Amino acid sequence: MEQKEIFVRNDVFFTGVQEMLRLGKSVRIRVRGSSMLPFLRHNDDALLAPPEGKRIRRGTVVVAQTDESGIVLHRIRRIDRDGRITLLGDGNTRIFEHTDRSRIIAVVTRYYRGRHSFSPENPLMRFVGLLWCEMHPWRRHLLNVIWKLKKLITA
User: Fold this and answer.
1) What does DSSP assign to residue 113?
2) CA 71 to CA 149: how far, in whole Å?
3) What does CATH list as the number for 10-148?
């Protein structure tokens, strides 16, 4: 049977996702775009879990409604004392988004790439994710190297 893709607006899609999460179910979604490179690529999958009972801290990858960009899947860069949360996509170098705990829709509990999967909360992955956060001012240079290597490999 041939599979077809259907595209819907984020707000419509995530209304359905939120309902499934409210029922206590996990939801696996297809990632679109490159804002989470190098950890998640376009067409990778992410497993989402309800945020209730999950540890929300610096470095956690979440789906959240933001002030600036609507609904995004990004990493928590900072949590201020007043509860304001700053998000930054791993592949972004300048675009910060802001939210708060009440607007976190889901926590990403697993990444899938082909037949491989891994947890962003695995101690090694968490360390690398936090290190990547700290490299913010310099990571655009690393991303340029990654893009150039990717072009060489696929050429």
Assistant:
1) E
2) 30
3) 2.10.109.10
| Whole-number pLDDT of residue 85 | 97
Alpha carbons within 13 A on the beta-carbon side of 130? 12
Task: Give the integer Cα–Cα distance in Å for 74 and 96.
Answer: 10
For the chain, state the CA radius of gyration: 16
- pLDDT tens track for 70-104: 899 999 999 999 999 999 998 887 889 999 999 99
* Residue burial 22-49, b: 16+ Cβ < 10 Å; e: rest: eeeeebebebeebbbbebbeeebebbbb
Between CA 76 and CA 97 the distance in angstroms is 10
Residue spans per domain, the chain: 10-148
Q: Which residues contact 134 (CB under 8 A, 6 or more apart)?
A: none
Question: pLDDT tens digits for 95-122?
Answer: 899 999 999 999 999 999 999 999 999 9
| Under 8 Å between Cβ of 101 and 85 | yes
Residue range 4-56, pLDDT digits in tens: 777 778 888 889 999 999 999 999 999 988 889 888 999 999 999 999 989 99
